[in-house]
Specification:
The protein is mostly helical and 411 residues long. The protein folds into three domains: 10-62, no CATH class; 73-183, DNA polymerase, domain 1 (Orthogonal Bundle); 198-408, hpI Integrase, Chain A (Orthogonal Bundle). It contains 17 helices and eight strands. The strands form three sheets. It has a three-stranded antiparallel β-sheet. Helix 4 (90-107) packs across helix 6 (146-165), helix 8 runs antiparallel to helix 9 and helix 14 (342-349) crosses helix 15. The longest helix is centred in the middle third of the chain and has 20 residues, at 146-165. The radius of gyration is 28 Å and the shape is elongated.
Length: 411
């Protein structure tokens, strides 16, 4: 610890840290000797936390006590990402990174072992604040809801668990906190039960062509995405990353490798229903791309949320529609329309176990009871439409330049 001349205000002196050239430094006087320490941050909140820990270690050292080895939150997060992230799917990693951004902003510089219930309450309160109430430069926008905060805290619990495996910390305070918080209302949002009727599906596909400002190529891809999602029940990433080499039109099946499936799920082969079989045979392919769904330049899509929302808004559907609602609709139709057993649907959708399928589709039991006593009316099912014909009707042939002619390719 070097003894240096200190420059700063009395207010900064009382905080044991000060700012110089945009960065913060710790400062403490012990027995008339001044000690300083680079805190390596430009954030006042982080500087305060790091300075507190540095002063505690400094005092313990001067008393002849050997400072107890500690793990900072920053080091714990680094260990978590290095150890745990290689096991996760890309989408799962992105989800955890989103939570870790907020967790790091709030807990940076703190000793992991000293994070307790009071700190978790502080984080919960901080996460609820809208951006305008946070300090300039902080992340966030309108404040997080209960479900988002629980996901953040669950991620924090994972950080503690990985740290415990490496003996970096002894206790994980998060599970007991979440258990108590649940009693006062900090719960996950209820599971969605939205399922599209055949009429809504028809309107949604039609609206994908008529939505304002949508290009013809995009209309074809949106209609195909909606149709394939409902018929095949693939997850969004499984469908958007689907390449033609994994589509076997002769055997009527699509291969989903384990690396694309969700965690704890194995590879699977998904049957292709007749409507999707016709669609895939007619779907235009790009000369330089192997993706089933692709942009005009041949590159793949990464999200279809906005396109589906735009089509849903133009279709004037009564209820909000998400991409996952299309997959849920597939599961419901397999159970109801095709009379498949729950175990078969579980394998089709790639669930980790039949218990997951039973939990996800538990709402069907109530719906079936209503239908049995006549309290629900069955919607009239419109004629089945061919999405590729619908979106390309009256489209000049030159609009499809850049694609392989269907008559010149093999399946």
């Amino acid at each position: 610890m070097a003894c240096q001349r200190w420059e700063g205000t009395r207010e900064a002196m009382s905080k044991n840290y000060y700012k110089r050239n945009g960065l913060y430094y710790g400062r403490k006087v012990i027995d008339s000797i001044e000690y300083t320490h680079a805190l390596e941050t430009s954030s006042a909140d982080v500087a305060r936390k790091r300075a507190k820990k540095w002063v505690e270690d400094l005092i313990a050292e001067k008393r002849g006590e050997k400072p107890k080895p500690t793990t900072s939150f920053d080091d714990a997060v680094r260990h978590y990402t290095e150890t745990h992230f290689p096991r996760l799917k890309p989408n799962t990693r992105r989800r955890y990174l989103h939570s870790l951004m907020f967790l790091t902003e709030h807990f940076a510089g703190q000793d992991l072992a000293k994070i307790g219930s009071a700190d978790l309450v502080s984080f919960e309160t901080w996460r609820r604040k809208p951006r305008k109430d946070r300090k300039k430069g902080g992340r966030g926008h309108d404040g997080a809801d209960d479900a988002t905060i629980r996901r953040d805290l669950t991620t924090l619990s994972g950080v503690f668990e990985i740290a415990m495996e490496s003996d970096l910390v002894e206790v994980n305070p998060v599970p007991s906190f979440l258990k108590k918080a649940k009693r006062r209302g900090l719960t996950e949002n209820p599971p969605r039960t939205r399922v599209l009727s055949h009429v809504e599906e028809h309107d949604l596909i039609l609206a994908s062509r008529l939505a304002p400002g949508i290009r013809m190529h995009t209309a074809i891809m949106v209609a195909s995405f909606i149709t394939l999602s409902i018929d095949l029940g693939l997850r969004e990433e499984e469908l958007l990353s689907l390449s033609w080499d994994r589509v076997d039109l002769d055997r009527n099946e699509i291969f989903i490798p384990k690396e694309l499936a969700k965690r704890d799920s194995s590879e699977r082969r998904v049957p292709i229903l007749p409507r999707s079989q016709r669609l895939l045979r007619k779907l235009p392919r790009h000369k330089h791309s192997n993706y089933v769904l692709h942009r005009e330049n041949g590159s793949r899509y990464f999200k279809f949320w906005h396109q589906v929302q735009k089509a849903a808004a133009h279709a004037n559907l009564k209820e909000h529609v998400t991409v996952h609602d299309l997959r849920r609709t597939c599961g419901v139709r397999l159970l109801r329309d095709h009379k498949m057993a729950m175990a078969a649907v579980s394998r089709w959708l790639g669930h980790s176990s039949i218990k997951v399928t039973e939990r996800v589709y538990a709402f069907l039991e109530i719906d079936d009871l209503h239908a049995a006593v006549g309290t629900q009316t069955q919607a009239v099912r419109p004629p089945e439409i061919d999405p590729i014909i619908l979106v390309t009707k009256s489209v000049p042939q030159q609009r499809l330049i850049g694609y392989v002619d269907d008559s010149k390719r093999t399946s």
